[in-house]
Every structure is written in structure tokens, then in C-alpha cells.
Amino acid sequence: MPTVIVEVMPKEVLLDPAGKATARALQRFGDGEITDVRIGKRFELTIDGEVTPKLLEHIGEIAKDVLSNDVIEDVISIRVAD
Amino acid sequence: MTHDHVPDTVENAAATPEKDQPFHLLGLKPDEYQRIRDILGRRPTSGELAMYSVMWSEHCSYKSSKVHLRQFGKKVTPDMTKHLMVGMGENAGVVDIGEGWAVTFKIESHNHPSYIEPFQGAATGVGGIVRDIISMGARPVAVMDALRFGAIDHPDTNRVVGGVVSGISFYGNCLGLPNIGGETWFDPVYQANPLVNALAVGALRHENLHLANAKGVGNLVVLFGARTGGDGIGGASILASDTFAEGGPTKRPAVQVGDPFAEKVLIECCLELFAGDCVEGIQDLGAAGISCATSELASNGDGGMHITLDNVLLRDPTLTAEEILMSESQERMMAIVRPEKLDAFLAVTTKWDVEASVLGEVTDSGRLIIEWKGQTIVDVDPTTVAIDGPVYERPMEYPAWLDALQADSPSKFARETEGEALTKQFLAILGSPNEADTDWITNQYDYYVMGNTALHTPDGAGMIRIDEESGLGVALATDANGRYCQLDPYVGAQLALVESYRNVATSGATPLAVSDCLNFGSPENPEVMWQFARAVEGLADGCLELGIPVTGGNVSFYNQTGDQPIHPTPVVAVMGSIDNVARRLPSGWQDEGENIYLLGVTADELGGSAWAGVVHDHLGGVPPRVDFGAEKALAGLLGAAAHEGMVTSAIDLGTGGFLRAVADGVLRFGVGARVWLDEIVSRDGVDTTAALFSETQARAIVTVAREDDVKFRGLCDGRGVPVLRVGVTDRESRALSVQGLFDIPLDTLRGTHRGTLPAHFGAVVGG
Amino acid sequence: MRVGVITFPGSLDDRDALRAITLAGGEAVSLWHGEHDLQGVDAIVLPGGFSYGDYLRCGAIAAHSPIMSEVIDAANKGMPVLGICNGFQVLVEAHLLAGGLIRNDHGTFIRRDQKLRVENVDTAWTNKYSVGQEIVIPLKNGEGGFIADEETLDRLEGDGLVAFRYVDVNPNGSLRDIAGLRNARGNVVGLMPHPEHAVEPGFGPDMPEAMSSGTDGLAMFQSVLAATVLS
């Protein structure tokens, strides 16, 4: 069965406390090549049947209304897994 | 974003007086904008416009409420202020509780953000009030919250309740502050406008008191904590555009994201800075961010400040100067530091991994000057920004509907006399959303952390030990009954005051001071303004009667769903002290065969009551009468009884009346009771319904060991508090028995009381 | 006996742990996460809290903080180490104890007075209890669900490494009701509930006898004092 992958990230202009704390911690590893971390969410939706454009549109709505909170998050990608 | 945004300089402003400025989009009225031009003798720069607009907003300037709030400072006696180390006007009031200890506490609203984004709105509400406490030099020691939501069965309520509660839980728990109490109400008037009022309390040694002022010419202005980002700027980004029309910048979000970890580290960092004597003055950054902090610190100090805005550490390098001035990024503080202390200051911030940057210095020029990229973008008298904002005497009007509402008394409803019908009424009240057990909410809060919590939810007041050696502690309670206030805002505000006062007294503590969070509809509605004025007057008069001062608080206007204002909701927090928290009074029964006494007299007062609301879906008539003398006598008695260890529990009577309080007594530890009403009915001349459900004030029930009966009655007589023995505790019965009316098994009571919130929001762990 | 309590940025119950050690009769010593000096302590407590905000995984960043290399070294040499709540999560992330701790099955933070059964008393931190003893200790966590694969769970059970189990109510979905673990040697113990919140009458959990009177956690700190005397 096909899988649709939805990725959600905190809005770029808002503080991402999780990413900030992790970035600070990573500075102890390596030579400072990693300058920032942002942490988002990845959803894998298993689909029964074919992924039609209509279904993708529907998933787009779900992603915006349910999987993310558009006050503080952005849906950055919706795609069918290979 | 317009990355090449050219800042509007003072020079430019003087040269282009006719430039069209978007003051109306920033909430300024034409006359306010003109006043800014008059003050400056030119048009404001866009940065100055940003500062004035946000500092002259209702939220920051109190422009509609100021003329009324002055009463809190005027209606005081020297005796009331003798414990007051810092009164109104600072970040939070400070009260001397003895043994060299002082306590600072304040309650503040975060209502509107909590509707837009309940989780972050509530979380940052907690964060903001805690920073107010730190900035007085105190270690925060506890939080509480007063919450108002829409109808419990409305489809949107679940979203708001879930978000707000988890936001408070997340932020407060991560800060390591015990959440020791609060209250939760559901009413359709709060549907699209929930109230999230957060209280924080902190303790400090007298010598550690810090104030928000910038004194000492040449002292450094240091911004530290989180970096400044685009949080909570909202409409301010309009200023970044020269055209502010089509193709302007992306509007920045109006919400802020909280980071409790950053705040926890900031608390410890600040306390270490205070201990090392590294700061002269300190101010937290909340609403209006750097605009507020710089103008307030300068106004309260030597009058001037010179800031280089380029030195602000940014999370987002695309921010414009105006946006930096208005950003409400959380977890930031501004300190005034002597130059020779800067190294020590930075050593502490480095230890805690807190970023800091020197923005400028204190001057005595009387001007707040802010530079950006080598040019002056702000040159103002800071007092015109922070202190001498507009003051309005808004029109007031007696509400056209009020007489009819007060005339619609619940006395029209038939009174039941049979046990079965009264049982049904009682269980309906006990399980109603506003009377139901709030474990679903409070089980998400940590009240253990710090190891000093002596009383907590569901006790009527929270209590914290301040001194681990002596046991010295403080008790706090909050209350507001919007239904009472709708019927009579003057009396309603006083009822909130006496209820909180009584809650504190019932814990065994002596009430000392008040903080308030006044939640109302639009001040531009003359009827709302009348409600506000009456509530403030009632509260000020009440504080004078009780002899406890208002030490600070907050006003929240524009709380309404569409055109429908909320019920006036003046949340009143009372703080009291107790010599030794070991003498606290439990709020439930633990022992077999103790006598139960009702203190105070009962009148037929059911206007605005839970009985009227739950049983008859009715709001009308007049609220219960307030008797300050009786309240003081009751509080004095409870304090003395606690001190002498004579009572084993105390529960105050509030909404739901006598039977509701008895239910609290049996449910707290699962010890049943037998009570009787005959003597209440005969002595006070009321019927059964009033004896069970009347909400007459200045009453409490206490338990006393049998052998202390005579002594206790003597104590009551000596203090002029009417007393009746109305029951005995009965561990074995596992039931609440009201003689001649009904027996209800504790399991039934518990099931009814505990089932309501889980039925709407999800199971409570462990049932 | 000197017992150290490590403060990480975001530690919350560190002062409570210090108080518990003092009440048990030990000498409490504050240790700082950023240093490499254990100051000659005889035992170590990793306290509760949200170290580094717990944003990555609970305890994950703290497990890599400077002082942890010394703690791991000392633990491997037999020094008693107790991890409470976030400290348990740190011990798991540092691989001193088995399994993992995930979001509570009901999805929310929970604070409750929790009944536990002491399953193993052959450790530095439980020798003052008796096997099968039921105790009441406050629990407060958002990510306390203990998980491990079946093989690991069977091994933990078989080797007697389950130190505490939830009784009556499993508050977070922990597999096999596991509330706390020990290591094979018995010097390292971790648990989600907070023994340091049940050490002082008046400030502990409610008990049938009286409100806030629970002190069932004190024996955990007394145990280590007895253990270090013996060793």
C-alpha cells in the first residue's frame, strides 16, 4: 500500500525551543560545523488504494487543519513515498 | 521581507513632516497621534510610533482604567500599609511577612492569546507572571491559575481547555514551580473569550529587594536571556513597509512561543546575579518588549538612556528596528549593571549558558535615545512614553437591563421539601461543571516540587512553607464569581474579595494583601465601563473594610464574544501568612466521631447561586449580602483556633452552600458524616432549601474533637461568632447522611463529583 | 557519608533530593553538570526535572554532559547511583540501565500518589525495604512509559532486575508495570516516581492515617547510607 509523507515544521519566524536546545548540545560534538537545528514532524500516512490528486488535496487539508497548527507550524511537504 | 529596509531617522522625520503614517493600523486614535506630534514637535519616526503605539495601548497604559484604579492607592489607612514594602506601580507588590522574609505576588491575564493558540498562550502567561516575580529579586515559589472557559459541552471548549491546561502544565512543571490552586469555571459567556489568569508568588530576604529603575549615570543597560525574534509582533511589521499597502511585508505572527527551559535557567541565573550583587535595577520583558523595558527603566530612574539597537542579539537577522522594539520574544530580562560589575555579571550568565549583550548606558539627559546603524531613530522623553500616556474618563451608563435582572429573583421557584427531590438537586449541583472535581486538570500539575507545599488543590487555599527552619509560610487563594458580578458588580467584587479572604483564613493563615486581575468587556461600551467602575469601587471599599491593601494587579478589557461582553470577572487573590505551616487546617475530615460545627448565620440568599443556576438554569435577583465585620470575626476565630490547635479541619462555605461544603469535607479523605438541619432552620428562620443551598457569606464548617466542645464554643462566644453543632463525622458509614432527608453513599457522591470533567475531556488516570 | 546531587540546567527536584539526603542523615553535596569533579562523594543522585528542556529525548542531552563521563565511570566501579524520574531517563540514555522511557500512553503529564511494590532489596538503594513491601510515592511525569523488547523484559525479570512495580494503577503504560530498575551489580537504581517527595511529614503524599504524612521514600536514602557504610 502506498505511503504519503507529510512534513511539518515550526514556523521559521517563531522560536523553536527544541531545535535551539539541541543545537546548543551539538556544539559539544564536532568543530562547530553544525550551526542550527530545527525540529519538525514527519507523518507517514498509509493509503488503502491509489493516491489520486483528489486524495492528495484531501490530505493537504488534513495536514493543514489537523496534523499541523497553522498558528505556529507550516506544512512544508506532502509527497508519495517511493 | 524588505531586507533593505531603510530606517526612519529623527532627521528624516523632521524633514518629512507630511509623511503619511499608519497610526490607525497600530491602534492609535487620530487625537493620540496628534498628541505624539505635539510632544515631539515633529512627526514621530516609525520607531517612535511603534513605541508610543504599544505603550499607549490599553494593555500597557491602563488609559481607561487609571482614573478608577487610583482608589486602591487612596482608600488605605496607615495600618493597612505597615507590612507593605512595595506597593502598586512596580512589577509586583512586596509584603513583609516577618523573620526578615518578604513575599511578592501578582495575578495577571493572558486571555486573548489563549484563545488564538491555547497551549502557547497559557504557557507564556505563566512565563510572564513568573518573570515579574523574579524582577523583584525574589525566588518564585508557587503558581496558581484562575480559568474561565465556555460551555463545557460546546464543540470548541475541548480545544481550549486541553490547550490551556497542557500549556500551564508544560510551562509550570518545567519551571519546577508547584501549582497549588486556582479555580475553573465554565459559562457560555466565555466561549470565544476564555480567561487565563496566572498568579505567581515569590519569596525574598528583605535585603534582596530589587526595583525596576535605571539609576547611576554611566551604568550599563544589559539585555539577557533568549534572543529577540519575530514573536508577537503582529501588526507592527506594517511599519517595515514604506507603503504599507499592496506588496508589503509578510505579516508576522501575533503569538509567542514559550521556552520554559530557558526561563528556568534564567531564574537561576537571576538569583545568582542578585546574590552576587551584580545588578542595580532589573526589569522583565513582556508586552511591548524593549520599548517598555527601556522607557520604564529610564522613567523610573535618572531619566535618560542611550541605546544602540544593533547590539540586540537576534534570532532572526531580517528583523527591522521597529520590529525589534516591539518584539515580545519571551524569556528576556533587562538589567542595569555598574561597569565594574560587568565581568562578574557575564561570568554568571556564561555559567548558565545565558546570552547577554550590552545595549547602552544610563544618562541623566531626560531623553531615551536609540541608535540603529549609526543613526538616531528614537529621541524621546521616556516619561511621555511610559508614564504620561493618555488618560480617559470613559462615559459610563447604568445598564438598561440591570433593574429587570435584579427584579427577577429566584424566590419565584418552588422549594422542594422531600428527601428524594433534594437529593436529585444536590447531586445535580455537585456534578455541575463549576462544582465538579477538577482532578482532570490539576492532576496535570506538579504540586510536590520544592518540597514545601503544605496545602494544595482541592484545599480552598494553597499554602507554601517559606522558611524551612521556622515553618513560616504563606497561603493564597483566588476567587471571582461572574454570576454575582453580573447581578451587582459592586457587591460581586466584594464577594470575590471576602471569598478569597475567607479561603485564606480557613487555612489557618492571617490575610495580609490583595492582588487583582480585572477582566471585563470593552471599555468603549458605557455599560461595561459602569460595571468596571462599580467593581473597582467595591473592591477598594472592601479592602478598606478588611484592612488589607491591593498591592498590584492587571486589567484586561475587550473580553467579549462578538458584541456580548463577558460577565464582569474581577479575580481577587488574597495572600496571608502563618507562623508555622504545621498548624494549617486541613480541608477535610480524617477522624471518627468529631463534632461538626457551622460558624455564622444562614439567610435565604439564592440570587446568582449554584442552586439557581444548576437546578433552574436561572441568573437573576441580587447576590448574597457582604458583612465585613462578620468576615473579620470569623477569620480571627479561625486563626486563633488554628494557633491553639483546637480545630481539626475547616472548610469555607461558598457556591453551593452548606451541603456543598459538607460534601467537600467527606470527599477529601473519604470519612463520612451525619448532619442535621433542625437548629439552622429554627435559629435562622430559613427553610430546608436555604439551609442546604443558600450562599450566605461569612460562614465556615469546622471539626473539633469531642472533648474540646465546651472550650471551642467558649472561643466562638468570646469572638462573637455564632456557632451551631450540626453533625458528627462517621468513618464507618461510608455515607453522607442528612437527618430526616437522605443518605447518600460516598461512592455515589464521588462518582457524581468526579465524573463530569472526564466525561467531556477524557479519563483521569487511576479513575 | 557524602551523597552528591547533580544539577543539570533544567533540573528541578535537586534541592528536594539534597533535603532528603540530609533528613536521612547523610551529608548532601551539590554537584554541577559542567564539571568533571565528583568532589569525593560516596554516592550520587541524578534528580528529577527537565534537563536541557528534555526537548530531544528525555535525558538524552544530559547523558552526554561533562560530569556524566565520571558518573558512568564511577558507576561501573560500583558507586551507588540513583536516578529519579529525569535521572532515570538519563541513566537509560547513558545505558547504565536497560530499556527506554516514552510518552505516557494517555498522552498527558500525570501527578498522583502512586502505590509501588518493592520487588528487589539487594541493592544499594532498596536494602531498607522488604521484598513485596508496598509503598506510596508521588509520581509526576509526562514521559514515564517504560518500554523494552520482549527478550529484554524477560531477561530483566529473570535476572531480578525489576526494582519497583506499579500496583493497582499503571499510570503511564509501562510494560509489565515496571516503575524502576536496578543493574546487575545492584549499585545503580532508577525509578520514575519521586522518593524525595515522601520524606518529611506534612509535605508527603496523603496516607490513611493523616494528610501529607507519607514518608515511604526516606528508606531509599537511608539504604544508601547503610550500603556505603558496609562497602
List the helices and strands and how they pair.
The complex is a heterotrimer of chains A (82), B (767) and C (231).
Chain A: E1 3-10, H1 17-26, E2 41-46, H2 53-67, E3 73-80
Antiparallel strand pairs in A: 1-2, 1-3
Chain B: H1 10-15, H2 30-40, H3 46-55, H4 58-61, H5 66-74, E1 84-86, E2 93-98, E3 101-109, H6 111-116, H7 118-134, E4 139-149, H8 157-175, E5 179-186, E6 195-205, E7 220-225, H9 260-275, E8 281-284, H10 289-299, E9 304-308, H11 321-326, E10 332-337, H12 342-351, E11 355-363, E12 368-372, E13 375-380, H13 382-386, H14 402-407, H15 419-430, H16 439-442, E14 453-455, E15 462-465, E16 473-479, H17 482-487, H18 489-506, E17 510-519, H19 526-546, E18 550-556, E19 560-561, E20 564-565, E21 569-578, E22 595-599, H20 610-616, H21 628-643, E23 647-652, H22 657-669, E24 672-675, H23 678-684, H24 688-693, E25 700-704, H25 709-719, E26 723-730, E27 735-738, E28 742-745, H26 746-761
Parallel strand pairs in B: 4-5, 9-12, 17-18, 24-27
Antiparallel strand pairs in B: 1-2, 2-3, 3-6, 4-6, 7-10, 7-11, 8-10, 9-11, 12-13, 14-15, 15-16, 16-21, 17-21, 19-20, 22-25, 22-26, 23-25, 24-26, 27-28
Helix pairs in contact in B: 5-19, 7-8, 7-9, 8-9, 15-20, 18-19, 18-21, 21-25
Chain C: E1 2-7, H1 14-24, E2 27-32, E3 43-46, H2 66-76, E4 81-84, H3 86-93, E5 100-102, E6 110-118, E7 134-141, E8 145-147, H4 150-158, E9 162-166, E10 178-182, E11 188-191, H5 218-230
Parallel strand pairs in C: 1-2, 1-3, 3-4, 4-11
Antiparallel strand pairs in C: 5-8, 6-7, 6-9, 9-10, 10-11
